[in-house]
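Take a look at the protein record below and tell me what you see:
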Amino acid sequence: MRRLAAATRLLVLLAAAAAAALPPEIDKALRETQYVYIQSQRKSGEFGKPAEIWFSYDGGAVYVGTRPTSWRVRRIKAGRPKARIAVGKADGPTFEARGELRHDAAAEERLMAEYARKYPEGWKRFADSFKEGFKTGDRVLVRYTPQ
């Protein structure tokens, strides 16, 4: 039980440190904007073109739900987790992050609740495919932690 409590405290501290790593204007923009534009790292080390995507900002990290065949997921699986994230628009303020695949039902539920709140019209069309996709593996959760 003590180990669990210690691990929980460590996770809270790490989340706080991650949020603190972002400049205040980017942190504020992530709380207010509709979209982020993610560029994942290619084999060459360069970043791909920015892809607009729905997101959730939770605990100092950016979460997205995406298909396992997306370039961002393929690159993470290939050992290239580095990404550049622009906030609000493709040429908006950016930060670098490390992407990782997460298998966390609670985080998936929080993401879907945020999508329902943030994107009410679009969510009506996609809610079932996300819910089912997380169950079947046709959708995966990616967490981007600022670096």
